[in-house]
Amino acid sequence: MDDLQPRTAGVPVRPMADTRNPYLVYIAELESPRSRRAMSACLHRLAAMIHTASGREPGESPGERFPWAELRAEHTAGLRGLIGRQNVDGPDGEPVPWSPAYRNLHLSALRGVLRTAWRLGEMTTDDYQRAAAVRNFRGTRLPTGRSVHAAEFAALLRACAADRSPAGVRDAALLAVLYTTGARRAEVAALRREDYNPGERSLRIIGKGDKQRLEYVHESAAALLGAWLALDDRPSGPLFKPVHRSGAIQHRPMTDAAVRNAVVKRRKQASLPPVTPHDFRRTFIGDLLDQGVDLATVQHLVGHASPATTARYDRRPERRRRNAVDRLPFPAVGDTSP
Predict the structure, then answer these.
(1) Pick the catalytic residue: 34, 119, 218, 278?
(2) Which residue, 7, 23, 96, 183, could crosslink 90 as a Cys pair with Cβ 3.0–4.6 Å?
(3) Across the chain, which distance is largest between two alpha carbons, in Å?
(4) Distance CA 203, CA 194 (A)
(5) Would residue 149 be called left, alpha or beta, if left means φ above 0 and alpha means ψ between -120 and 50 degrees?
(6) Tell me: the pLDDT tens digits for 48-83?
(7) Residue range 237-246: average pLDDT?
(8) 184 catalytic, yes or no?
(9) Could you tell me if 130 and 71 are in contact, meaning their C-beta atoms sit under 8 angstroms apart?
(10) CB-CB contact of 70 with 12 (8 Å)
(11) Is 281 a residue of the active site?
(12) Dihedral over Cα of 255, 259, 261, 265: its sign
């Protein structure tokens, strides 16, 4: 490698007992499956970077076998430099640098596993503090994703209606819940029938940090949800279930990946541009703010810990800036008058 290579070289690789393995303990203590997947992937990448920089083959699951407790400040400093040079393939095949948020996600995983190593007694307080004192990357990016317009949502519902199987009924209800609650896809996948109160049109949702909140579905969404629930008279169990290609409803919960796949399937049938489940969340927040709902109410509806997170979805400042640009004088095409 380069001058960073000596900083990451010299870290031995040896197996560790499971009960003393900071990686296994750290991942096991994370609350959600999605967090466990994300942080596990980050630690595997970080371990692979150090192995590669040291001239070793990473092998399979390098994060699990890596001796995180033996990292010191010089190693984490070198690792930060390696993170700063990572790229992904862009739409045109050209390398695109990792975003600051994605880089900092890896640093967060690194600090987490180091903190676990310290808690397990595998690192001294001084070694832990020095190694974990690696600085975050600066910079921001505009939010990704887009809004789902009402006409697009109507096209999605028509695609579901054209499917006469239970899957079509389910997906119409699923889309309606996403569109009128702004719930995360993992939250929707985890919903149970006991969480839905048809009389109040309310859904009890367990969000990040094991925090419960109540969401309310639109009247029209409640009708679609009722049509789905009428296909299965079980009073308890998962709210949304897989449907076999034969049309049989399977009595187990959908995964969050299955929620995403249902959205992708219906948007392709509706001939719409790419749309994700999280785009419905963006749309829900933006539409409420457009209608004058105060920021604190919207924050509580979507389960954000900070109002600053909710404010990132506010489309009004961008609209004001666009309107300001539209006020600029611009000559008509062909007008060459001074």
Answers:
(1) 278
(2) 96
(3) 81
(4) 9
(5) beta
(6) 999 999 889 998 999 999 999 999 999 999 999 999
(7) 94
(8) yes
(9) no
(10) yes
(11) yes
(12) positive
Cβ atoms 217, 316 nearer than 8 A? no
Question: Which numeric CATH code is attached to 150-316?
Answer: 1.10.443.10
Residue 241 is among the residues annotated as catalytic for this protein = no
User: Choosing from 208, 213, 260, 265, which is the catalytic residue?
Assistant: 208
- Asked if the model's pLDDT at residue 7 lies above 70, the reply is no
Query: Is a pLDDT exceeding 60 seen at residue 290?
Result: yes
Taking the C-alpha atoms of residue 215 and residue 204, their distance in angstroms, rounded to an integer, is 7
179 is catalytic: no
Determine the Cα angle at 76 with ends 74 and 77, to 5°. Answer: 60
Task: Give the residue, 82 or 31, on which the prediction is more confident.
Answer: 82
Does the pLDDT value for residue 11 go beyond 80? Answer: no
Q: What pLDDT band is residue 337 in, cutting at 50, 70 and 90?
A: low
Q: Hey, what are 94's tokens?
A: 């050209």
More confident call, 88 vs 132: 132
CB atoms within 10 A of CB 326: 8
> Where are the domains positioned within the chain?
5-132, 150-316
One of 184, 241, 266, 267 is an active-site residue; which one? 184
278 is catalytic: yes
